[in-house]
Amino acid sequence: MKKILIAAFIGLALSACSDGKKQEKDLLDNILKVHDKLMGNDDALMKNKMQLDSLLKLPAKDTAEKTNMKAIDMKLAAAEEAMENWMHNFEPDVTNKSHDEIMKYFNDQKKGIMSVDSQMNAAITESTKYLSNRSK
């Protein structure tokens, strides 16, 4: 009876371990999926930033227009910087950390990358809209 109980406990412990590792892997995969999407969006961000930078070099006809362009350009730069900061600070190597520590870290990182995603999407949407209205 004691051997059956020990075997059951070991089986349960191994199962819990593998469930924990799966949770960690799934969360990391989710973070990396958002990161990869953002890297794809980086092309649009850079394209819009280059177009705005070129427009800002032209002589000012309308100061309010120039101010608006600068504000949009700053949003693009801030989104780019947020992405760079997140990537610089992200550490996927969680060796020697407990499951709880790993899950907390990855959940915090997921919140961070989702915030960068929102910031980048907003900046790209606003700049794309602005640039397309200028070309009409």
Helix and strand topology:
Layout: H1 2-57, H2 63-89, H3 99-134
What does this 3D model show about the protein?
- By secondary structure, the protein is an all-alpha fold.
- It has one domain (21-134).
- Helix content is 88%, strand content 0%.
- The protein is built from three helices and no strands.
- Helix 1 runs antiparallel to helix 2 and helix 2 (63-89) packs antiparallel against helix 3 (99-134).
- The N and C termini lie far apart (82 Å).
- Residues 5-16 have low confidence and may be disordered.
How many distinct helices?
A: 3
For the termini, the CA-CA separation is 82 Å
Flag low-confidence runs: 5-16
Q: Domain count, please report it.
A: 1
| Percentage of residues in DSSP E strands | under 5%
Radius of gyration, CA atoms, in whole angstroms: 23 Å
Class of secondary structure makeup: mainly alpha
Give the CA-based shape: elongated
Which series of helices and strands comes N to C?
HHH
Total beta-strand segments: 0
**Share of helical residues:** over 70%
Average pLDDT confidence is: 87
What about the largest sheet?
A: none
